[in-house]
# Entry
Amino acid sequence: MGLIVQKFGGTSVADADRIRNVARIITETYRQGHSVVAVLSAQGDTTDDLIAKAQEINPRGSRREMDMLLSTGEQISCALCAMAIESLGFPVVSLTGWQAGISTNKAYSDARIKRINTERIKSELDRNTIVIVTGFQGLNKFDDITTLGRGGSDTSAVALAASLEADLCQIYTDVEGVYTADPRYIKGAKKLEEITYDEMLELASLGAQVLHNRSVEMAKKYRVNLEVLSSFSNAPGTKVKEVVKKMEKTHVVGVAKDKNVARLALVELEDRPGIAYKVFSLLAKAHINVDIILQSIGRGETKDISFTVKRNDLDEARRILEEHKESIGFDHIDFSSNLAKVSIVGAGMIDNPGVASQMFEALYGARINIQMISTSEIKVSVLLNEEDADKAVQVIHSSFFEE
Ligand code: ADP
Ligand code: ASP
Ligand code: MG
# Structure
């Protein structure tokens, strides 16, 4: 007997039959004697549809009003699921983010959870009631609704599991677990029985959307017992934990693709101390995250610096740098957004120099050109043309995971 937090994603609650299916999973867990807190996403494409509605009215609507709008999707699925559970004859209550006591910082559309006052949830659980909570939302210090960023319901679930000290947090989705690559696109992708928090965090941050990266960060911090599994089958899922038993010969656990990337290059920069500081501090001040950075060797008086940012930061980054063109001192900015970042992830790569070269060999075999490379202890990423990305993932995946 324990407390289980179960999260159901958009596809899992997409229509009436699926909501009934989710109600069945929740009540089955409850019947086994567990307390259940279920966190739901909006149904199917609801969040995208709401964004499209806003675009129709005002493409520059404020983030506050966007959050007011987007948070409604989760409210619908939760109320419907509670009604499905009522019809099965179980005690249930659905709660919005604020009713569930979820406080966030003030950052509309990308808020961080600061604290959860679990009083209400606990009193409902004490009365043996099943609690359904809206994912993706909280309340900030102005008592305004905030949302946690796309895919943020995973983070709501893990945060609730951490605050309630749940025995288990199950993330139910539309695939059977975490795979060596996106199983929807990559032939031969294999389900992992288990994966470490660090590797999962890296995979999620590098584009594997199966878990919101902040949910993994939080699971690691609070040692939440996390499991990813399918709401459509009874197959065992993937456990995300601190230490796993390594069965594989390979050091690579997965391949990820991220299309949300753009590259800028400052061409013919003055080659003197302080330039990199100037460029990147301007971007940091505007909260623009820079990822891969490459500086050329100086030629005569000048050098080039190339770097990547998220696609939706490209225009702002260009605007800021152009505005400071004189004081930074460069000739022009070159940029591109038809790019993708493809990465391999695995702990202990640093001790195995053959891993990066095997990745590059696979790309060479497919005649795919690499534009930039970055490595860390746990990953190797390459930047390439977007049209090459799917092929790149497939050939890299085959190289590492097919006998
Ligand atoms: P949900 O709506 O349940 O939150 P998401 O669409 O956010 O579901 O995440 C699940 C999707 O993540 C899968 O359908 C799959 O296409 C994608 N995905 C990407 N990389 C991986 C991976 N390595 N393992 C499993 N799924 C992945
Ligand atoms: N409904 C939100 C989204 O589509 C949150 C989530 O599904 O996790 O991004
Ligand atoms: Mg998701």
